[in-house]
Amino acid sequence: MTSHALPRPPRTNRPQRRSRLRGLADPPLDEIGERQAAAVARALSDIGASLVLSSPLRRAVRTAQIIAEALGIEQRIDARLNDRDYGFWTGHRKSEVIAEWGTVDAARPGWRRPRRFLPVSCPHSTNS
Hints:
By secondary structure, the protein is mainly α. It is built from three helices and two strands, in the order H-E-H-E-H. Helix 1 (about 30-45) crosses helix 2. The protein is elongated, with a radius of gyration of 17 Å.
């Protein structure tokens, strides 16, 4: 019988941004995140896993590495597991995007509304 476990990557070095859309932003795990990944490995130790797959994002690769090393199994990276690209909305609060668009899925990644939202990477920008 084949078993699958899909743990989310643990905490990154940007915990204050947990309510924000990360998508393809790629912060590393912090120390707590490393311990959380080790706890996931312990929790998975009894399922008889033979392979750990992860997206190419640094936080996912490190999580998979910790699990694979603890369980003595193979680790592979698969780009099909990558997170969603939120485009302009990466780094914005999920609640802001929902207030503007109704749902995160309705927000257009490459489009923004005038002046209400400024790019997170350029907080002092006046471009609309």
